[in-house]
Amino acid sequence: IVITPLVSFCVATLNLNTKVSQWTILFNFSGVQFHYTMALKEKYKTIGLNIMYYRRALSLTQSELAEKAKMSRARVSDIECGKGPFNMESIFLLAQALGVDPVRLLQERK
């Protein structure tokens, strides 16, 4: 699957392997590639926690973030709770609303 997101400098390729419940995603940002493989359930949790972190850093409510990202508050809540699956468009919309690079939402925080 190749997705051309809302940002013009990024192309993402997603390879979902449901047999082993993991995904591999390759991002190409202006010629620089990032590659991630992780168990789906853990990845959903990681993404959700990152979205919550950046939302709180901006002192936004879920409703305010949902409005900026043009999605429902319930959907933002589900994503923050790690309830997958969700599509890459949601990640890009949320990243744009939060003013962060989409890769930051995928990275594990230490």
Please characterize this protein's 3D structure.
A 4-stranded antiparallel beta sheet has the order 1-2-3-4. Mean pLDDT is 77; it is low at 1-12. It is built from 5 helices and 4 strands, in the order ββββααααα. The protein has 110 residues and is an alpha+beta fold. Helix 2 packs across helix 3 and helix 2 (62-69) packs across helix 4 (88-98). It has helices at residues 40-57, 62-69, 73-80, 88-98, 102-106, and strands at residues 2-3, 10-17, 22-29, 32-39. A hairpin with a 2-residue loop joins strand 3 (22-29) and strand 4.
Task: Chart the SSEs and their pairings.
Layout: E1 2-3, E2 10-17, E3 22-29, E4 32-39, H1 40-57, H2 62-69, H3 73-80, H4 88-98, H5 102-106
Antiparallel strand pairs: 1-2, 2-3, 3-4
N- to C-terminal distance: 30 Å
Q: Order of strands across the biggest sheet?
A: 1-2-3-4
Regarding quaternary structure, how should these chains be classified? single chain
Low-confidence stretches: 1-12
Order of helices and strands: EEEEHHHHH
Percent range for β-strand residues: 15-25%
- Main sheet characteristics: 4 strands, antiparallel
What value does the average pLDDT take? 77
Q: Structural class given helices, strands, pairing?
A: alpha+beta
Number of contiguous helices = 5
Q: Categorize the overall geometry.
A: globular
DSSP helix fraction:
40-55%
Total DSSP E strands: 4
**Rg value:** 13 Å
